[in-house]
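Ticket #311: bound-state structure for Phenylacetyl coenzyme A.
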Amino acid sequence: EMSAEERAFQEKIDAGIKIEAKDWMPEGYRRTLIRQISQHAHSEIVGQLPEGNWVTRAPSLKRKAILLAKIQDEAGHGLYLYSAAETLGVTRDQVYADLLSGKVKYSSIFNYPTTNWADIGTIGWLVDGAAIMNQIPLCRCSYGPYSRAMVRVCKEESFHQRQGYDLVMAMAKGTPEQKAMAQDALNRWWWPALMMFGPSDGESVHSAQSMQWKIKILSNDELRQKFVDQTVPQAEYLGLTIPDPELKWNEDTGHYDFGAIDWEEFRQVVAGNGPCNRDRLRTRVKAWDDGKWFRDALLAHAEKKSERQVA
Ligand code: FAQ
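RESOLUTION: The complex was predicted; output attached.
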């Protein structure tokens, strides 16, 4: 049963009018956005860690500069997203505390290790590729601050995706050893990348309501299919094999059919039991603790400055 306020709210959404921070909104809409935007922000921040692992070992100055720029972009995305969450009445410290205590989620993909240099290119190609697929529709989502943040984030992700493809291409067209490294990376990242889109539509608890509110524009399975359709020709161009014997072009549907996802693995990773979950959280908690002296100093400095202004 919708109240008059809720009906007016839904009509606004149906008419394509953006909801802004100070507009009336149902509590459920606010909570869903805080959940999704803060999980998204945490993903950007934790997502720096797998790549950070290779900064000191990048094979050339050019590759190191590119990698550093990309990781800094991810930090920036996290900051825009925390700011977007703050427009909904939470503080950054609150949502960040929920990450550090393990209470809230971040994307499953960042709980996998980066074991060879080709992983860095593969993350750009597949992980940023999947992120863009999911985020381009979010530029049209109903909440103004989130939709506007997504516009800039998507431009940067597009650069990330291209640098990743360029790196994998250099390796796939390189020596047989380099090509084998690229294939090994694809074998390990393919299925986790498909899991980024979330549970299948039948299992997705939030989808129906989020789609009605235009927080989500396309469903998890629709986005996953678009990603497969886009990525298969890219792998073929590289001469690499996607690790799925059931992958096959379907003339009737005009899409690729693909094999079953291991949802038990997904559940385990989301529940905190992936290969790197504990390590990732430990690293973030340590960074927060190690930064305490600096936050204290900033606050003390700001207080002194405002006292001086009053005097
Ligand atoms: N991992 O009912 P649904 C990036 C959870 S890109 C972990 O379908 P919803 C860029 C879900 O939260 C990655 N948990 O949920 C980058 C929910 O749990 P809850 C970040 C997952 O929200 C690249 C439950 O399962 N992108 O960081 C995952 O309608 C390279 C039920 O699922 C975004 O966050 C998963 N993969 O749809 C950075 C995009 N999937 O909250 C560095 C914005 C689902 O009830 C390097 N988010 N869950 O406890 C979204 O579009 C949506 O939140 C979905 C999930 C599509 C992720």
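RESOLUTION NOTES: The radius of gyration is 21 Å.
TICKET STATUS: resolved
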